């Protein structure tokens, strides 16, 4: 009775073969190049921004807010914040 086949040099392990094929697939996926697409809406916004149609008052207000935040002098109006958040809390309590 023959228990082991001594004539086989390299027995094939199906699990090893499966793992190797998965590694090869991952390598193919990792070498794939990333791709970026820009929507038409984003293109329109970019064109509007570059064309100089940005409201000057709005741009000045944004710049002023950036300076206040960076200097640490920006103060949040708690009553305005509460008014904006109140509808969200009302919706969640009704459900």
From TrEMBL:
UniProt keyword annotation of Phosphoprotein present: no
InterPro entries in alphabetical order: Anti-sigma-28_factor_FlgM_sf, FlgM, FlgM_C
UniProt xrefs under Pfam families: FlgM
Segments forming domain Anti-sigma-28 factor FlgM C-terminal: 34-85
A GO BP annotation: negative regulation of DNA-templated transcription
Chain positions covered by the region annotation Disordered: 1-36
NCBIfam families: FlgM_jcvi
Protein name: Negative regulator of flagellin synthesis
Species assigned in the record: Paenibacillus rhizophilus
High-level lineage: Bacteria, Bacillati, Bacillota, Bacilli, Bacillales
Gene from which this protein is expressed: flgM
